[in-house]
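Ex. 9. Protein: Bacteriohemerythrin.
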Amino acid sequence: MIAWKDSYDIGVEKIDCQHRELLAKLNEFFEACTKQQGKEKIGETLKFLKEYTLEHFGSEEQLMKDIDFPELTEHQKIHAEFVQTVLELEETLNTKGVSVLSTIKLNRTLTDWLLNHINKCDKLIGECIAKRDKAV
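Predicted structure tokens for Bacteriohemerythrin:
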């Protein structure tokens, strides 16, 4: 289980709420895995991720456009790579079925995304907004 830290907030309530929602879903999946129920929960988690990425990445990318975020193109590329990873995991599940390996891969993917992408890349969005607001 990963506890939300205030340091994960980027300072944009809508985005921060979406990030908290992702963490809650990740923790549900972790909990299922610790109870040996990861195989049962993986399909639901992937379905959530597909829907989440559409809504969240759309919101985040629109915000980046609105603030003229200098690294928008790179950020969009990273988002596209994450979506591809989710789709590849789903394809593996559909063709090979659920395995311990697939649950481990999803755990690692989500943990890495949360701890690295949100805490590093998305923080830059908040910093950009703060600088812009200070300049005004």
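Check your answer against this statement. The chain has one domain: 11-135.
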